[in-house]
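Model it.
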Amino acid sequence: MGVFPFATSLEVTVARPRAVPRRVENPGPEEYSLQGVLEALADPVRRTLVAQLSRADEDMRCGTFDVRVSASTLTHHFTVLREAGVIRQYYVGTSKMNALRDADMEARFPGLLQALLAAEERERDAVVAPAR
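Modeled.
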């Protein structure tokens, strides 16, 4: 008997390399709805994620965002943003990357994302340096 006395040689499975690379389904710009985008951006955590992506010089891994929510809650927020078309997600090895779809958003809803990001920055600055 081997290490697992309860397993026979027929019951043991060995992990194999993936035949197909991991993919994330991202909606096309024609699938965005104003309602979906506004609902996705109504949440303050999601607005924070979008603002951090906007300020970043490159796409960001899921675990690199500075938010105080659990991993499962963060996954939910990313899903909502992706399904609304605000971000694009893709894999690099085992890391799930996030990219802001600012050009797609600008083409579909001109000025919306930039107005939201400007308002978010004003709010963030007001909290950091309150009026005297």
